[in-house]
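Dear support,

I submitted the protein below through the web form. The confirmation email said the job was done, but the results page showed an empty box. After a refresh the structure appeared. I'm attaching both so you can tell me whether what I see now is the final result or a partial one.
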Amino acid sequence: MGATLDNTADVDTPELVRFRYRVAGPVRRALAYLVDLAIRAASLALLYVVVALASGGGKRFSSGVMLIAAFVFEWGYYVYFETAGDGRSPGKRALALRVVKEGGFPIGFIDSVLRNLLRGADFLPVGYVLGVLTMAGDARFRRIGDRVAGTLVVIEARAGLASPLVLSPPVTADEVAGFPPRPPLSLSERETLELFLRRTELTAARREELAETIAPALAERMGVKVQDPVRFLALVHHRATSGAPVQRS
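What the results page shows now:
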């Protein structure tokens, strides 16, 4: 019997850590779009009032400025927020959605530009009909822009559902000496670390093998050295997610 179609997608990262994402369907994505549309409309309306007051009622000047602003808001809004907001526009954040690469990586500037430029094709013939039909025919609910850019829109797990990770032995000040107060990790990287640390079914040898593929790159980025890769990843996660004081040795 063939595999059943559902709204989950398994993604294997290069570090051989598997994510299971819940992909977002058309309804939830449409709601997020409406939130973003309302924000853009309100911002343009406010800008119009400001420009009209500043120009003393000059209609030609106001119209020219508003045309430019409308273009920037239409094509720059999503690119800015998806790039700076780790794949989340305000509407996506409100609906707990995020754009990620198909390999589980954070979305980049070029990825966002590609998927948003093709919103024009998804809109055809009117009201995103082609985009909705394309999503309905895809197991991962990807519209045309997602397929070209290699992206997915996923539903984020609500924070706070899992019990906090507890390090044993506790973190000491000597262990994190030289670590930045907040390691430069994206949300996806923090999720990868947490998933790795919660995988209690791994053997010690397998855990060590996986840690050795991840730890060196993080250590180089942070400018620190690795002694115990597994412990190092636990320390990085602790520093990235907790503001709790460390023990003095």
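Response: this is the final, complete result; the empty box was a page-load delay. Confidence is low (pLDDT under 50) at residues 1-6, 243-249.
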